[in-house]
Specification:
Layout: E1 3-6, E2 14-15, H1 17-22, E3 31-34, E4 45-46, H2 54-63, H3 75-136, H4 138-235, H5 242-259, H6 296-313
Antiparallel strand pairs: 1-2, 1-3, 3-4
């Protein structure tokens, strides 16, 4: 067993009982403390109180011879001895006070360390409690991580869908602009076609009126020709050949049958007729109205007059 020793106002270290007996100045009144356990004030005791050191102290006292009796000091030496003793006593007291202050500081440091240890123990307990709570929440944490991953995947898919719809919307806008342009073009074409149809209807109305007038004129001419033929038959029965007479009768008969149904006048404000389509070529604005075709009856009448007039002159 080893002991801390206090000699000459200091603690040189821990020693075994055999080493303590060899130290100079070591005696049974020297303060020692067991090296094992805590170093407290109550553990510092005289060396003669420990059973491990008492045999060594007895052997040490036997080996030491008693010193010779000191001579009585002179009166002057007594004062000097007292001064030296008081000086050593005050020095030792000062050292003890210094040691006491150091011990107080150490004790305060130990107390602060103990308080810190208690605080750390409390913090450790709180940390353990928090750790236990976190361990109980570990399954929930895994569920939250899985939910977060699902949310991230859902957000990614929604972003991809959003980009696709934005692209589709951009294409639809382009198609809308293209359709608008085509609609404007179709509107312009429709307006132009409506104008063309109006012009054509006016031309058809004019041609219908001209044709009606010519049919009326032809009917008058045929009636005149019949009267002339009748007059000519009364005057000169043999002047007209039978073939010409038959042609005139056929023309007059066909004209009377056709003249019973004259062409109806066309209203210029009437809507466009459905017989005309937009596929027909456009008629220029300054184009002249086409001439009506010459009816077959008029051609036959002209030929008849050419045949009759020379014979009558002859």
């Amino acid at each position: 067993m080893r002991f801390w020793v206090y000699i000459n106002g200091e603690v040189p270290g821990s020693f075994s009982p055999e080493e303590l007996s060899k130290l100079s100045g070591f005696s049974g009144t020297t303060l020692v403390c067991p090296a094992e356990g805590e170093i407290l004030e109550k553990n510092w005791r005289r060396a003669g109180e420990f059973s491990e050191i008492m045999p060594l102290l007895a052997e040490l006292s036997r080996q030491q011879q008693p010193p010779p009796p000191a001579e009585p000091p002179a009166p002057a030496d007594v004062d000097k001895l007292l001064d030296n003793a008081s000086h050593r006593l005050f020095s030792h007291v000062a050292e003890l006070m210094k040691e006491l202050e150091n011990r107080r500081e150490e004790k305060a440091l130990v107390l602060s360390l103990q308080r810190q240890i208690m605080d750390l123990k409390d913090q450790l307990l709180q940390a353990r409690e928090q750790n236990a709570k976190l361990e109980t929440n570990l399954p929930r944490l895994a569920e939250l991580e899985a939910s977060q991953r699902q949310s991230d995947d859902r957000i990614s898919s929604l972003e991809a869908t959003l980009h696709g719809r934005e692209d589709a919307l951009a294409q639809l806008r382009m198609q809308l602009e293209k359709t608008r342009g085509e609609l404007e073009t179709a509107k312009r074409r429709f307006t132009e076609t409506a104008n063309d149809l109006t012009i054509r209807n006016r031309l058809v109305d004019k041609l219908s009126r001209d044709l009606t007038e010519k049919e009326v004129s032809l009917a008058k001419a045929l009636s005149l020709i019949r009267r002339l033929e009748e007059d000519l038959n009364r005057i000169c029965p043999d002047a007209i050949q039978p073939e010409s007479r038959e042609q005139i009768q056929q023309l007059s008969t066909s004209k009377e049958g056709n003249g019973a149904k004259p062409s109806a006048a066309v209203d210029p404000d009437a809507p466009p007729r459905p017989s005309y389509t937009t596929d027909e070529p456009r008629i220029p604005a300054n184009a002249a109205a086409p001439l009506p075709e010459q009816p077959a009856a008029q051609t036959a009448l002209t030929n008849l007059l050419k045949k009759l007039i020379p014979r009558q002159d002859h």
